[in-house]
Amino acid sequence: MNKSRNSIKLWVLVFVVLTCLLGRVVNAKSSVVFKGRKGPGKGKHIVFVIGDEEYRSEDLMPQLAKILAVHHGFKCTVLFAINKETGEIDPQTLDNIPGLEVLDKADLMVMFLRFRELPDEQMKYIIDYTNSGKPIVGLRTATHAFNYTKNKNSPYAKYSFRDKEFDGGYGRQVFGETWINHYGRHQRESTRGLVAKGMENHPIVKGIDDIWGPSDVYSLTTLSGDSKPLIMGQVLVGMDPKDKPNPDKKLVPVAWTKTYTGEKGKTARIFTTTMGHGGDLKNEGFRRLLVNACYWAMGMEDKIPDRSKVDLVGEYNPNRIGMGGHKKGLKPSDHELE
After folding, report:
1. Is residue 12 part of a domain?
2. Over the stretch 13-37, which tens digit does the pLDDT of each residue have?
């Protein structure tokens, strides 16, 4: 009898262990983690939340995470939009970003989302983090991160980019603006980034000589809250950094800082840029802007180097922008460092 009971206990133990191990494997497959090497960021954890169908955030964000981990010491966890059936990275899956529970222990969230409608159990982690007073960095389409079309009764539906009561949804409330339209001609006019007057000594622009990218300048109405323009976007007449400015188009903010006070009364530092085309990250100045912004957001501006190291880590060959143009068949583990 005792042998039988012991045998049952043993099998129960084996089952529990296998279940836990399987759970870890499944969770590991939904994200990629880059361990921080030497640098000021040692001990800090940045979580990247990705889901955009057009601008190749699934290429850009893992490379940015590698730069921050390898050159600056930050632990970086990258979460993707994942196809529920294949487990592959799929920006066109609008309702699934597994692994968001890691935000509970994050020191910074870097967001590049577009028109997502996540299930409530996933969205809760993002909103809990947003209300925690911890910092957020947003790229390009983060100004219109959410769009609830199916579950309009969700408590999170107010974060939709066109919400009227919660003016402009998550984008305008948290990041300073929602989606308006293209100001520069999409894929025909590129962007030169110029430091805004009076912001030359801001820590985020430290060591930056030049910012250019193939992204077009987004239109704005007025920036909300205490937003302070940091980089002004100059519309160029073509897609080459040597092209001349379009004389008919004024400078428009393409990067700014602000604060956001959430529902718990805690205030967070926010950095937003409407640049973020996959090709923008090929520009050293833009990479340095993002790296410095992460330092600043976490209150580490005194640790920003005179010239932050932003060398690309490994190959960086983003696909062309466009709907459905992402690399097919990739899983998060394919981004792991060797």
Report:
1. no
2. 444 434 444 444 444 478 999 999 9
